[in-house]
Amino acid sequence: MSHFQRVLLTGASGAVGTALRQSGTRLGKIVRLSDRKPCENLGPHEEDATLDLADFDAVSEAVKGCDAIVHLGGQPLEAEWKTILDSNISGGYHIYEAARRHGVRRIVYASSVHAIGYYERTETIDGSVPTRPDSLYGVSKTFVENLGRYYFDKFGIETVSIRIGSCFPEPTDRRHLITWLSYRDCRQLVEKSLSAERVGFMVAYGMSHNSRAFWDNRTAASLGYKPEDSADDYADKVFAKTQQGDPNDPAVRFQGGSFCAAGHFEDDKK
Amino acid sequence: MSHFQRVLLTGASGAVGTALRQSGTRLGKIVRLSDRKPCENLGPHEEDATLDLADFDAVSEAVKGCDAIVHLGGQPLEAEWKTILDSNISGGYHIYEAARRHGVRRIVYASSVHAIGYYERTETIDGSVPTRPDSLYGVSKTFVENLGRYYFDKFGIETVSIRIGSCFPEPTDRRHLITWLSYRDCRQLVEKSLSAERVGFMVAYGMSHNSRAFWDNRTAASLGYKPEDSADDYADKVFAKTQQGDPNDPAVRFQGGSFCAAGHFEDDKK
Amino acid sequence: MSHFQRVLLTGASGAVGTALRQSGTRLGKIVRLSDRKPCENLGPHEEDATLDLADFDAVSEAVKGCDAIVHLGGQPLEAEWKTILDSNISGGYHIYEAARRHGVRRIVYASSVHAIGYYERTETIDGSVPTRPDSLYGVSKTFVENLGRYYFDKFGIETVSIRIGSCFPEPTDRRHLITWLSYRDCRQLVEKSLSAERVGFMVAYGMSHNSRAFWDNRTAASLGYKPEDSADDYADKVFAKTQQGDPNDPAVRFQGGSFCAAGHFEDDKK
Amino acid sequence: MSHFQRVLLTGASGAVGTALRQSGTRLGKIVRLSDRKPCENLGPHEEDATLDLADFDAVSEAVKGCDAIVHLGGQPLEAEWKTILDSNISGGYHIYEAARRHGVRRIVYASSVHAIGYYERTETIDGSVPTRPDSLYGVSKTFVENLGRYYFDKFGIETVSIRIGSCFPEPTDRRHLITWLSYRDCRQLVEKSLSAERVGFMVAYGMSHNSRAFWDNRTAASLGYKPEDSADDYADKVFAKTQQGDPNDPAVRFQGGSFCAAGHFEDDKK
Amino acid sequence: MSHFQRVLLTGASGAVGTALRQSGTRLGKIVRLSDRKPCENLGPHEEDATLDLADFDAVSEAVKGCDAIVHLGGQPLEAEWKTILDSNISGGYHIYEAARRHGVRRIVYASSVHAIGYYERTETIDGSVPTRPDSLYGVSKTFVENLGRYYFDKFGIETVSIRIGSCFPEPTDRRHLITWLSYRDCRQLVEKSLSAERVGFMVAYGMSHNSRAFWDNRTAASLGYKPEDSADDYADKVFAKTQQGDPNDPAVRFQGGSFCAAGHFEDDKK
Amino acid sequence: MSHFQRVLLTGASGAVGTALRQSGTRLGKIVRLSDRKPCENLGPHEEDATLDLADFDAVSEAVKGCDAIVHLGGQPLEAEWKTILDSNISGGYHIYEAARRHGVRRIVYASSVHAIGYYERTETIDGSVPTRPDSLYGVSKTFVENLGRYYFDKFGIETVSIRIGSCFPEPTDRRHLITWLSYRDCRQLVEKSLSAERVGFMVAYGMSHNSRAFWDNRTAASLGYKPEDSADDYADKVFAKTQQGDPNDPAVRFQGGSFCAAGHFEDDKK
């Protein structure tokens, strides 16, 4: 059971949020669920806090009484600027500023591979390299990471920023063989991020035990994270179902995959 | 004379903007000046483009026809979130997105020491270290740097992000002996940022030839930047007028100075 | 099955070449075997291409129609200069230049520990350290690695350069406990080098899962390489059969072993 | 069986010394035991050499005839300066100087986490970082490490300096989940330090296979060290019995634990 | 004039101490001079404090009332162990512990090239590399550096440890062309070490503006140190008077010069 | 006057060779000049040794009696493979092997920017980065550097490999503003390479004091090299005469300039 009294879980209705609800009291004695729509099937340790991240007062009300936050909420893919701005940038600020005002001690943030998507697949990087976002979405992730760095350096609020690769039921393309994070490993990583005695401001990579990894994930290891799943187990299936890509296609060359091959959202959506 | 046909200079009415106007056609054959209020005393190579950075259409109109931008505009100090968000974050996005739409080839951005303010003064850093902002203002600077990184990696628009230390007529406190950038050197650094053949995405530090520097400024050197002024020449005067600080005061300990000692703007302003 | 249509395997009659032939169509749909003498017992997916690497026209003819090359051929030990020059240096150039002319997309090259033999055993190195060859043979390996780097940077031909430690049936001396590569793991590493979507120009180390390793082999791991064998399993046997060396003997001190203790071939052969 | 003829084991009566005696002839054909009091229950391969490390002549007499030393002796915790000086500093010099005079070839030294105790728990360090001792005890450990470096560089006497984390029967607090070294793994690490062909001057970390480790222990791995125990197996028990600490308490923040929270021994003992 | 009220200068009668006395009140408003024998010709801002560094009570008495210390005292060359132990090791501890008890805020310590003497001359090192002492004297210098690190991390007492190369009237051998520190530059470096607002624990190299330097001295530069002298001006004279050495002689190969070529003091003195 | 008795200068009739002849006895007491054609106007300290580098016996005869070599000879630009192979690869081996047989102690080798031509202009590199040649010519330069590394590690023959940027009478294009090496500075750098007491195997960059440099040239500085000329003095003239390049043109993007934009020599010459 977590030593936190009440943990706010944002984005609780999404696929990852739903997976994390299975952690139950390993997140906190009480888990407050927030999303745009009310969450269903609340357990005895759960409570609901429907809200729009763009609304500071609503966020502040939801944060009140919590001592930790798992922040999954916001726009999960590339989108037009206004959406990124409201959901991810303002939303991220609202979470951190409410945390400061209400004495929250630790935040676990769902960052993304798209914060560093423009590194080549042949490069092994760790959490200290300069960010290289591959989309406005990725830029918004780097923004919240910088917020986390700031709120720790000035106010002592700890953050684990987990750059999630591909959190899906199973790997379906060749890049997922590198970046896949199973729901089970995702739960473990979030739980370990909450139970570690000290995390300061830490960047970890969210991936299972995939041998093809291009990430040096020693920070996650230092939290005690030991992934139980591996994309390797799906390799034969994925190789059989998918074509070999052109190594010079940006979607193959860079860690961010198809995000790096796309143009600007405004143009692409036409 | 610059090889750029028309350069947009934002924040043209501020102290630094005014200093840069003296560069004349070394910035561009035509220099378009923008600020919230009309600029005065236009020279024959200058044209006016009054605008609010928070207004995308106005920014886009001003960028049209330019092939380079020197972006000084926006909120120059810590402020409440709404101001930072509109002027620096949305404003920064508007500049880059307008640049993309209108074929601008290079942007010189006035970033700040406050993007890395939480490094200790005893650490020598270069432009590749992880950012450690000391304020919401500093966070907004890291946001625009990430935008610049993204627009170069995906769209090929080059950026020199100059992390300006202290750009004032002369150093007035002991920290300025480290961080001072004279107006003359500022002009040279911006001019060299525009005339270099290739800059990619580059982070340089904006300081004069100060021997107490805590920055490894090899990127600026590679642009051909050779500062002509030095804060050293003001050392005796500054030492005489100021008190030795407590080395454990955050304002003395960290590179960001008083920004690191301040609390959150919302609380401090009360 | 490999996604390559036809792969040229040079040095196919040697011990490593023979071991690799067992990979069958995991190398390529068709595997063309080359050596100085005709290869025997051709399988249905195999074809023969007898040649001398020093003969550019013969190499070019053999490369024609292939889209990948596994280049094991050439002189495998220290030798007089003329042999190194013709077999390894000219031979290496012939392979790369023929590859360029005939549209080959990827080359897997059998480089060697002797390219970095003068690092001390107590140093852990990765593939990015400066080369330190321990013989003319080792110098020739660095030459081909530089060719591979060049042909990728200019012509986009990908290379995995595998610095093979000691590829033998089993470890027989104490240094082999560090450097041994089983035939089975060798096959896997070459197969993974061919099946990875993008390799760019990559240096990997060819060793099994030996706990005494002095190599940081993260590049091989990023290909998905998971060695199945370990020299550790032979440690007791090797310790029992061999003497402890003098730690200051160059053969013990350096990674290249006895190559570092030898003089110049011309003198030693007398 | 070790290839060393006679190994001196100092501190042989302590908990770690007693554990190491179980290694028997894997340390040396003969193991000479030294401590302030005579050791008991000598085996057929053991001999006794009672001595005070502060007495050079006694140390020299005990070292005579040995070709290796495992140096555990001295003050094992913070103490007043006089004790540290006599037991650890003079004692350390006596060991090395006697080794030089009597032709000892290798020393395995029991250094400590307290030599680098002031690194934060969120930092992963290896053996090459600058030392940051957390106590006079820790300073004395860095002193002997520097002695070892000197005696290797000038006289060729090899040293493995093992920075032991927490060598106890089992982990009992949350920091031990990171730093624990089982007696079994301790034995293995010392044995491997003696049997490796070349160690030069090497710093290794003494910990079991703990996933929460903040140490990059590649040097120990290069000796062939494969820990068989893990603090992870005790994690549930430790979590249940202990409270979550305050992440900003020095005892939680830094690697040295409570040593970092203590004041100066002279003051604290009052 | 220094902002320190009273500075203790140990080793005040030696050549370097005498040179530093010329700094006058740039060291402190009052400068207390200590050495084994009384200092002569006291100026109005000077006071005498004769003492033996091996005597803690005497050191404590001399430190009382001071807010900074410039610690030059102790054995300045290789010597027998007893001398090194009493003068440099115990002496160093006495200085730091007295400083802690009496509230001293900063210590400038005269460390030495011999703390890192075993780096090769062809290596450029900075203050963060592992120490590699070349003598017992050098080991004692690393001991005091570790003390300084400890007293800063735990008690906040700042230290600048200046690794002095060769502080003589002028360079007289070829190695001095690299390591020379003029008395004038030595004064400046100590003064700047005292006047900088924050130094934390810092390692700087004590050398003039010698172009042949093998030290990256950015820390000294960050104090504002701008050497005015250069060994280059003596190069022709030194080249004319001295022979070219054998590059493989340890005295030529290593940074510590003849210290690296010497044996152990006990043997050499015979 | 050099301490070497007789120095062989290969490529003595070329532009750089002719410039170096002005160094006179600062190279060696006797300077033996070699090129394909006899050198003219021999001074009293000069002697002629006409030879073809591809002829080992001729090289060996010329090396006999020399204790140092300045090796400029060979093909100075991209060429067909046969020329590169004979002049630069075989020629390089002949020089080193003859040096070994005849007891030569030091070689100064004219390497080239084209050994690392594929680094981007915005990257600052030093001599330890992996080579990235931009031509067969560049590959041949890396070959000789590896030879030099080998002959030092095994036989103790010292080498300074000078990667010359652009050694011409004056800079004539914008890239030369970065890479220019004046004849005067070239002379100084070669002289300092010969007079330094120990160089081991060292890579230095051959450039004047150009502020736009993308090379960290600390190794050259450690030889005492202080360039007296600067391409900066030609910047206005060059800017006036040349067009701004496209930053994405390989000739502008990469350090090797036009070599990076060219195709393969065999194709381009048609």
Automatic annotation (TrEMBL), chains A, B, C, D, E, F:
Q: Which GO molecular function terms does the record list?
A: oxidoreductase activity
Q: Which parts pass through the membrane? A: none
Q: Which UniProt keywords apply?
A: NAD, Oxidoreductase
Quote the InterPro entries the UniProt record gives.
Epimerase_deHydtase, NAD(P)-bd_dom_sf
Alphabetized Pfam families for the sequence: Epimerase (PF01370)
Q: Which SUPFAM superfamilies does the entry mention?
A: NAD(P)-binding Rossmann-fold domains (SSF51735)
Keyword presence, Signal: no
Taxonomic superkingdom: Bacteria
Domain NAD-dependent epimerase/dehydratase: start-end pairs: 7-180
What PANTHER family does this protein map onto? 4-EPIMERASE, PUTATIVE (AFU_ORTHOLOGUE AFUA_7G00360)-RELATED, NUCLEOSIDE-DIPHOSPHATE-SUGAR EPIMERASE
Protein family according to the UniProt entry: Belongs to the NAD(P)-dependent epimerase/dehydratase family.
- Write the protein's name: NAD-dependent dehydratase
- What is the originating organism of this protein? Metarhizobium album
